[in-house]
Amino acid sequence: MKTFAAIDVGSFELSMKIFEISAKDGMREIDHIRHRIDLGSETYAAGKMANDKVDELCHYLNEYTKIMKSYRVSEYKAYGTSAIRESENTIIVLDQIRQRTGIDIEVLSNSEQRFLDYKSIAFMGEDFNKFIEKGTVIADIGGGSIQISLFDKDALVATQNLRLGVLRLRDYMNQLGAGSGQYEALIEEMVNAQLSVFKKLYLKEREINNIIIVDDYISALVQKSIFLEKVNGYVDAKNFEYLLEVFREKTVQDLTKLFDMPEENITLLYISCILLKRMIEVMNAELLWAPGVTLCDGIAYEYAQSNKIVLPEHDFEQDIIACARNISKRYMGSRKRGETLEKIALTIFDSMKRVHGLEKRDRLLLRIATLLHDCGKYISMVNLGECSYSIIMATEIIGLSHAEREIVANVVKYNHSEFVYYTEMGRESELSRETYLKMAKLTAILRIANGLDRSHKQKFKDVKTALKDNVLTITVDTNDDITLEKGMFSSGAEFFEEVYSVRPIIKQRRSLKA
């Protein structure tokens, strides 16, 4: 049994959950502590976190530290989201917090944050798996932005971040001097354009039946008896209109009593409802589910999973791969070529385990690089490497950190472009030496795989590899002429040998024809 604390430094709330985690009993929440602190408004408006907010944050983090000691918490994880992520003085703020509280806060990229939210939903098990059997969207409504993630046939196929968070919209309404009676029309006008683009890019002929809601306001109401019909967090989409009718008819004071919610939350709840209403209309959704999970649940689940205390029921790696495949499809990538490169590259990776020193996660990054190897041709066949890099860095792949996405982007780039050595990158490069070496090793493998299918004809029925005495023998089973492949293989082999001190050679095995 481990006692674990998950801390979420959010844009409008500082939250901590205490869990008991064991292999026998799984995860059990034993306490949930929350403090309202508006970190987001000033960051989104001014770009920096003010000193008084840092002071308040440190005060309550010290209180949280005392609570953790009282529960004898053995380990904790503290994460900051958009309010810290978008602050210009992030490094200074994090150092102050560390010095004054002893708590080390890690900043999540948007994709990492949303992936943890997604994991917290998936932890619901059978309810989640059954719900996504039909077309489903996760609407993750935060203070700075919302994340719309699309499921099709049980797989996560696309995700998009829209800067339409409730705090951001509230502050914008205040800047416009808009009254509450104008909110609905103004916010719908703002979100319509972005939702229309999402619909054109991702929905097309897809039918969306369900919406899963992750937020701090609507979810709280769904757990109460506010709606006419509500079963275990499920609400009929038509019945949701009832909530907006209540807002139109009652005062803020009435709503505060009715919803048992602080007055400062009422406006944010209203904005969340307007956003969700517009999504329901655009997607023609029929059923809503608010499982009531938070980022803290996702943090705890990630900890339990990474320490092999709890085994995942859902294959999250397949979701990341499905996203990469759909990105490739969007940019007219060759599916057959991607699958061929994937097979060859992973075969080489697996045979080089005792040499490359890379991990299972790096294998996933290589796999994604093979799937996105030619996405840049959508823009330019000449500057394929640079264009591929730009597309990958500008496209969110849920589940990958910014650093991991940069590794993938560079591997794809240097598969097509001349490799740049670390000393030549200059001071502007943010890549650490460790990250650079990882990138070089994966690039070397992809170049070999790319050379083996240079004709794009998928000539090889089978590819086998054997590593012996610093020689990697790659045996290809084909009766076709592979002169072109041998030529392109030689150019990639030189870099491969430089990176690994292993000489790759290609060996053709012809099968007997009937």
TrEMBL record:
Q: Which residues form the Ppx/GppA phosphatase C-terminal domain?
A: 324-478
Occurrences of domain Ppx/GppA phosphatase N-terminal (ranges) = 22-304
CDD domains, per the entry:
ASKHA_NBD_PPX_GppA (cd24006), HDc (cd00077)
InterPro entries assigned to the protein according to its UniProt record, in alphabetical order:
ATPase_NBD, GppA/Ppx_hydrolase, HD/PDEase_dom, Ppx_GppA_C, Ppx_GppA_N
Family matches, as Gene3D superfamilies = 3.30.420.40, Exopolyphosphatase. Domain 2, Hypothetical protein af1432
Q: Which domain of life is it from?
A: Bacteria
Task: Enumerate the SUPFAM superfamilies for this protein.
Answer: Actin-like ATPase domain, HD-domain/PDEase-like
Q: Which family does it belong to?
A: Belongs to the GppA/Ppx family.
UniProt-recorded name of the protein? HD domain-containing protein
Q: Which organism is it from?
A: Kineothrix sedimenti
